[in-house]
Amino acid sequence: MELPELIMNTGATIPQIGFGLWRNKERDECVDAVTFALEAGYTHFDDAQVYGNEQYLGEAVTDHGADRAELFITTKIGTDNMDADTLASSFAESLKKLRTDYVDLLLLHFPVTETRAEAWLELEKLYDSGAAKAIGVSNYTITHLEELLRTCKVKPAVNQVELSVVLQQPELVEFCSDNDIIVEAYTPLAEGHFFDDPTLKAIAAKHSKTVPQIMLRWCIDYGVVCLTKSANKERIEQNIDIFDFELDDADMAKLQALDQNHRTNWDPTDVE
């Protein structure tokens, strides 16, 4: 199965669906989940220092025998490591845990007021060195991006934010598109809070798919990268089985009407 890809501003591509490792700290469960994902066809894996499982992703990929060149691996610098004195060394430790000498994408996990400016300078150095093939941010608002774009030498390739059919953030998505920044959607299933929504259930029935598959397919047709997460083999397989159909204009209009600014995670809106 060939996954759709988007072109980053570096010229490299990023698979439009990825497997996220948030809340997957148990070794056996994490290794099994990554193995299931590899077997299901995922090539894009999204990790972070704060998740506490980079070593399990590295272990699973190595044991599976996957070709590193065929994978797209992301990790994120934790908020405690965003000062200039510790960022590079913490990233070196991440590479060791991941059993690789580079990541395809390195993100700042949150726009920490005191350290985000110096942290970006450190990311630019890692980009220049080739240890991070692309760099970007997570949980940045338009205000944070405008600040960064005024001073950066290397433009962020990606902004990873919470985004779903019930949190569509159209202004942010448009701003990123206008500035050649790809949006990645985490928690695209809104933690299951809307699985009984009548509109979603009707569209799912129309396409003979599940509600989660409709929510993930919406991300694809919305033009963003979606990051799925599960430890269950069947759901891992279902979450990537979304490329044999498309949502039509009527579907997309109905789904657009579900937007209600519903967040399930941290809100960076008021971070100065």
Annotated CATH topology: TIM Barrel
Mean pLDDT: 97
How many extended strands? 10
Report the CATH architecture.
Alpha-Beta Barrel
Strand order of the largest sheet: 3-4-5-6-7-8-9-10
The proportion of strand residues reads 15-25%
How many helices? The count is: 10
Give structural notes:
The chain starts with a strand and ends in a 16-residue tail after the last helix. Helix 3 links the parallel strand 5 and strand 6. The chain is globular and about 55 Å long. Helix 1 runs parallel beside helix 9 (233-240) and helix 7 packs across helix 8 (211-222). Helix content is 40%, strand content 15%. With 272 residues, the protein is of the alpha/beta class.
Which secondary structure elements does this structure contain, and how are they paired or packed?
Layout: E1 5-7, E2 13-15, E3 17-20, H1 27-40, E4 44-46, H2 54-64, E5 72-77, H3 87-98, E6 105-108, H4 116-129, E7 135-138, H5 142-151, E8 158-162, H6 170-178, E9 182-186, H7 198-207, H8 211-222, E10 225-228, H9 233-240, H10 249-256
Parallel strand pairs: 3-4, 3-10, 4-5, 5-6, 6-7, 7-8, 8-9, 9-10
Antiparallel strand pairs: 1-2
Can you summarize this structure?
The chain is of the alpha/beta class and 272 residues long. 40% of the residues lie in helices and 15% in strands. Helix 1 crosses helix 2, helix 2 (54-64) packs parallel to helix 3 (87-98) and helix 7 (198-207) crosses helix 8 (211-222).
